[in-house]
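Obj: model holo form, ligand = shikimate-3-phosphate.
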Amino acid sequence: MIQEVQPAKLLKGTITPPPDKSISHRSAMFAAISDEVSVISNYSAAADPQSTLSCIKQLGVKVDQTQDKVTVHGVGREGFRIPEKPLDCGNSGTTMRLLGGIVAGAGISCELIGDESLSSRTMKRIIDPLSALGCKIKGKNGDFAPLMVSRNDGLRGMRFPLPIASAQLKSAILLAGLFSEDSVEVIEHVLSRDHTERLLNLKSEAYGTGKIVRSSRADLIPSQNYTIPGDFSAAAFWLVAGTIHNDSSLLLKNTGLNPSRIAALNILAEMGASITTENPRMEGKEPVADLRIEPAELTAIDLNPALIPNCIDELPILMVAMCFAEGTSTVMGAEELRHKETDRLSAMAEILSLSGAVVELAKDGITIHGNKDFIPLAADFPSYHDHRMAMAAAVLATKSRKTSTVKDAECTAISYPAFWHHLKQISR
Ligand code: S3P
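Output (holo structure tokens):
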């Protein structure tokens, strides 16, 4: 689908961002291996979390879905059946890596497959540590999916210092660890999102500049009865859109504000954005609030590389903000962006250049020469079938003087099915 994006004079209104994708995946997987029945409210209707649901169903877990409520009849750690067909993770790296950790730990013979994008993303980062634990898991194409998992002869306790700051990797190891008699420990020097630890009550303690987290068979797997908060990574598109359009006024309801996810809030504040938090509260184990965004003039920033794991999914839209920030901004130490649904560094350099922005691409980052009066050229933007590229291009295009298009725009349904509808609703 080719989506037209009209210029907007301003953006006004109230939006409830879609349910958090990371928490949706985890709630369904953890509910599946708990011994109880879990009722998860506000479960994401987006394609990725739906892939997780269809995979757990194939593993013999009964799932009832009504509107946004999902009831998962947990089968316990030992309850999975061997699936008849490959588990299709679609476009979802979180499904393949986290569920990969669970089925490999449980020793369930199965195959995990994904779409073209997922099949081209390295799985070596989970295959190596899971194999070291004693799991039987290998890629059919070397380091890439399809992944073949088979019965193991028991796991051994181990300590893993994480070589990259990745919540998917950390979670894959800890989830396999739930099947080990001896403790499996993960050391994070740079903290990544901590939803797995929170939702499973895993024990952790400070370790140098980071922390150590442990899991083992002794950990009880709690039922997952809660309401999923709105997705901060989806909200981030509106944080930037509402900031760069003069006379705008946006309110984002019910947005998840887990401290390990919201570096973009502090980065935008440092650039001069005016975003206020209202009605802060806890939703289950996750902090939530409403966010009010007023327009603001932005100034350039040299993004601190240490913050990258806490704004990894927001970097594309932060790059859009940098085009409208006076001065030269840099994002360095962001090589991980090359390993997402597409190579997001190259893709963003292409999208920003098409709009007339002056950017320089580096191996691990990008330099953006911004201008507070920047008016993007209208363009036919590619999305690379990547939801976050499509949404970043759309926000950029709203600031142009003419109509733009975004190609393969249906890919926003991976994380945000109502994105185009919401954009239309708030555009004036
Ligand atoms: C996710 C972790 C991040 C993030 C992805 C979701 C998760 O990936 O980019 O969208 O839910 O654990 P990495 O672990 O590869 O950094």
